[in-house]
Amino acid sequence: MDEPVGPSEWAVPGQVGVGPWPGERPDDARYDPDLLDAGDTRNVVDAYRYWRRDAVAADLAARAHPFHVAIENFGHDHNIGTVVRTANAFAAAGVHIVGRRRWNRRGAMVTDRYLDVRHHADVAALVAFARERGLAIVAVDNAADAERLETAQLPRECLLLFGQEGPGVTRDARDAAAMTVSIAQFGSTRSINAGVAAGVAMHAWIRQHADLSRAW
Q1: Which of 36, 93, 101, 167 is the most buried if burial means most Cβ atoms within 10 Å?
Q2: Bigger pLDDT: 79 or 197?
Q3: 104 by DSSP, 3-state: which?
Q4: Rounded Cα gap, residues 17 and 7, in angstroms
């Protein structure tokens, strides 16, 4: 099927998104009849305007990069939402939450509905998942013996693992990691926000491995 037209020129002044589809309806099963009738105010790129949610999720899965993101022991729910939203933006293959199952989804801005988000009871379960799929675990932590993220070569097929700001990843997680990387800092603070750190690390993977011609 052909790619849909970018409908940004149909935006209604003062309204988020776009209004009802003008003219003849597209003959394409990916489109949602209700959105075509009422308009699409979701926070999605133009290429996915008016698409059904499951169609967007399927297309993202087909376009996904071969890296996953894991979140361990986060103490602040809004950090989890930030990581999920960023993982969606960079087309991660999946997001994994280790430990606590419940989290505040508002920070994800509904992006979790388009991603493969899984829960693991503990680090051992996460490690088993990674090994089964041949993913190298990369712990992101400001440990003294960590490699600099800015100069490290990240594995193409990997699982980026983040812990809580302050304590960082647990010892079990670091022991299971193929490598540990840290983000260079130059100010007075000992650590940066965990959600921000996740975005920096994911973008490092993008710079090394992504085909930028496929970006929106």
Answers
A1: 93
A2: 197
A3: coil
A4: 9
Q: Which of 142, 127, 105, 121 is nearest to 178 (CA)?
A: 127
Q: Which of 13-22, 47-56, 80-89, 174-183 has the lowest mean pLDDT?
A: 13-22
Tens of pLDDT, residue by residue over 86-127, are 999 999 999 999 998 888 888 899 999 999 999 999 999 999
Task: Tell me if residue 153 falls in helix, strand or coil.
Answer: coil
**Cα separation, 23 vs 139, whole angstroms:** 51
Taking the C-alpha atoms of residue 18 and residue 39, their distance in angstroms, rounded to an integer, is 6
CA-based max dimension of the chain:
62
Measured between alpha carbons, how far is residue 185 from residues 168, 191, 204 in Å?
Answer: 15, 8, 15
Per the CB < 8 A criterion, the answer to whether 68 and 159 are in contact is yes
The pLDDT of residue 165 is above 60: yes
Q: How is residue 130 written in tokens?
A: 């990674």
First-to-last CA distance in the chain? Answer: 18
Rounded distance, CA 86 to CA 195, Å?
9
> Would you give the distance in Å from CA 136 to the centre of its chain?
18
- Judge contact between 208 and 154, C-beta under 8 A: yes
Strand runs labelled E in 78-124: 94-98, 117-120
